[in-house]
Design a protein that fits this description.
By secondary structure, the chain is α+β, with helices and mostly antiparallel strands. It is about 30% helix and about 20% strand. Strands 3-4-5 form a 3-stranded antiparallel sheet, with no helix packed on it. The chain has a two-stranded antiparallel sheet with strand order 1-2.
């Protein structure tokens, strides 16, 4: 006669798994494992939400930078004009992280991918010093009307235009 190691049931036709547990105990153990996995997922989700909330709280507390302009319109410069002023640092796995402690993250949104045909819609920057967010800047830019006709409706709503 077979005997379940977990609940102690005896039976001639009792089916046991390799660990010596009956079908009812197998179900219970599977439900316990699923409940534990659900609890772990919920805990991970809660931790992610807390981290996200802390990040956005830190971002909201940053001082906002203002860029003042002289109000004059400047003509577009060809990309070859600034090519000599742009330099790229080579970052590899062996690079010293201390060199990259102070930097600015720059984000631009454009009407397309061409630097000569498309217009800039939005510019944002975050200044980082010693791996801490120091200052943030964000502005919307009104592109020329001729570029707005080329945009898909999903990308730009009329209130942004």
């Amino acid at each position: 006669m077979a005997k379940c190691k977990r609940c102690g049931k005896w039976g001639l036709f009792l089916k046991l798994d390799k660990d010596g547990n009956c079908v009812a105990c197998q179900r219970e153990l599977a439900e316990q494992r699923e409940a534990e996995l659900r609890r772990q997922r919920e805990e991970e989700k809660r931790r992610r939400e807390e981290k996200r909330a802390a990040f956005w709280k830190e971002m909201d507390e940053l001082p906002r930078a203002e860029i003042r302009t002289d109000g004059k319109k400047h003509r577009a410069q060809p990309i070859s004009y600034i090519k000599d002023e742009i330099s790229y640092a080579r970052v590899t796995k062996r690079s010293n992280p201390a060199k990259f402690a102070d930097f600015v993250v720059l984000d631009t949104e454009t009407t397309g991918l061409s630097c000569t045909k498309d217009a800039v819609l939005e510019v944002a920057a975050i200044k980082v010093k010693s791996y801490k967010f120091i200052e943030v800047f964000h502005t919307m830019i009104t592109p020329p009307r001729k570029n707005l006709k080329q945009l898909p409706l999903k990308r730009l709503c009329q209130s942004m235009a």
